[in-house]
Amino acid sequence: MLVFKSADPDYFISHVDVNKIKEYRDEAAKLVGEASIGLLFRHLSASRLVSIAQIEGRTRGAGSEFVLACDMRFAARESAIFGQPEAGTGVSPGAGGIQHLARLMGRARALEVLLSSQDYDAELAERYGWINRALPAKELGNFVRALAHRIANFPAAGVVTVKDRVNAIALAPVGDFRRDSDLFGEGSRNPEAQKRFQAALKRGFQTRAAEMDLGRMLGDLSNRT
Amino acid sequence: MLVFKSADPDYFISHVDVNKIKEYRDEAAKLVGEASIGLLFRHLSASRLVSIAQIEGRTRGAGSEFVLACDMRFAARESAIFGQPEAGTGVSPGAGGIQHLARLMGRARALEVLLSSQDYDAELAERYGWINRALPAKELGNFVRALAHRIANFPAAGVVTVKDRVNAIALAPVGDFRRDSDLFGEGSRNPEAQKRFQAALKRGFQTRAAEMDLGRMLGDLSNRT
Amino acid sequence: MLVFKSADPDYFISHVDVNKIKEYRDEAAKLVGEASIGLLFRHLSASRLVSIAQIEGRTRGAGSEFVLACDMRFAARESAIFGQPEAGTGVSPGAGGIQHLARLMGRARALEVLLSSQDYDAELAERYGWINRALPAKELGNFVRALAHRIANFPAAGVVTVKDRVNAIALAPVGDFRRDSDLFGEGSRNPEAQKRFQAALKRGFQTRAAEMDLGRMLGDLSNRT
To answer: Nearest to residue A50, comparing CAs of A173, A176, A158?
Structure first.
């Protein structure tokens, strides 16, 4: 049983550092034999271990893709923010976000979320199926702890069978994760994406302050390049 | 970037004229090489262009299937009405409605919507996933305009890749659209469907006034034939 | 047209009697040629007949799987309770629950529901897509009756075609139901599951009183075995 939570109330996990994409991919290659963060995350989804993300603050890009790889996601209603900002910088999500979101929320909402590169609060993320539920921040920790202990105390055989059978239906095949990963790699070398990365960096992209409101910044950016 | 909206506050797009099914199919054949409105609409879904339906008033039958072919759907909470009235006249939706609704809302809600031939307001359409979101009518235009401009200003490469990858997961294959189209064509020549069309026409079917409340009319009709 | 409802306001259908699993499977074998309740239920889903479950009170385990096999599910907001308690006793749902829930609510919510073995009220079951809608108990009967009469009065040809086409998309293949059924059979013979069954029986499992709050009982149980 794994529970992931953040010590920083404003940030859960950020997107990848666009200056370190090669390093991330090299690290993934060491761990799973392929230069793909999506395939690395998919090991978590396919694992016998049950994982829960307890989300406060922002989680975007590969951060969102990490929580999507978890088995369940519960978020603080007041503070959690979700986003896939890739399209806003000229690329496509490469670590499984497309695979999970299209299956969780259907074609139209997945296209909205992925193409808008907008920030989504916990209440809307819940309505769209991005997360299991939005809960009041003060109840979130106890809720997740109780659920994790409950499942951890059930016999392993049934839990593992349930997870296997649900994955057989709802977890995308390895090849689709690999393809998205390759398309992200190719996209990030595109001159137009490189130009957007640079323009974004000039406006504070990848700094804590500027990413408090990243959704808005990406919209402004696109009007000026 | 395409945004579709209606100049008539009560009607977005109606169902097909049941007296002109052959004409519609012939027109589709000229455009896409097959006598299928569903395959025509599917070109919109598969296109590189991003499409948004901004819906006020009624959209039923092939009108609903047109908005389902769009990439996103936002509707006026106060006025938008959705329906697939085909079963109520003895036929099955032929222009993609079954393919989209079963994937967007799951088996039980799709069966309810498709078999009831009932009118659904924007709030329930949102809960069922028929539309992305219901918004207050006075905010709808600005919301859609801002979203369309935002996406239009992002680099095309990422947008096109995202759309391709989501379609690979969530857009039904050509063969399934073709099959539904053929079943609609066959169904509309069934004597029982022809009888229902005639009974409905006597009660004002395909007139503006009678279709303000089409869901109710179809229910009354079935009790008297 | 079939409408299923309960004469008991507290119980719709219970889970299977864990002391009679072999008898249930033998009965299913007589009816459908295979020792699988899931394949028996699947005949209802695949049937030309349209089925609606009108749910008041508790429906868990195979009871929940029975309503999931119905075409539509409407539940009393005040009283309906849903649960798949199998993991809590060391087994996995064997009568189609995994197949339906993973498709209706997506990977994360299906894993939550299936692994938590918790009780879900009608409001949350609606948000998760387990049921079509939660309605006030005093409106439920009239709503279901009107919907059933409405659909029954539509020509059969269109209704049957719609159901066939939706099933082609959203009803899991026979082989997946059979596999879940076999895994449940194997799991129930596992010594750890047998121990949990016995521990649960000592605490009133399978008695009316103890199952008023089965979700809580399963949680307590797991802490003491």
So the answer is: A158
